[in-house]
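INTERNAL AUDIT FORM
Audit reference: QA-55
Scope: verify that the stored structure record matches its stored sequence.
Auditor: D.O.
Record contents follow.
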Amino acid sequence: EERLYRIIMATSVQLIWSLRCERVIDKQNEPLHPRNTRNKWTRGVNNWLEMDCLQMRQNFGRRALKTQLVERTWEGTLLNEERLPRHWSGVAGVLVGIGP
């Protein structure tokens, strides 16, 4: 729970700063479309999820993330979670992500 909170906060803070810079510098204070903002946030969180799955690989040695940690972190947030294999995080070819 705490780990997911930290991931969501880090993603959100980075996105807020990035969107502010985009709006002020690139768009001359034009308002940003909410759908684009939501899509960027979802992409950011999905990137964390993908990195977690990649960091479980054995070539990380002792620093590899444990399957239980990754699955507990993302439990209840995944798109079509009820259809995923039991240990979805380590199954090659299984696409996981959070919905919009």
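Auditor finding: record pair retrieved intact. The first helix runs from residue 2 to 26.
Action required: none
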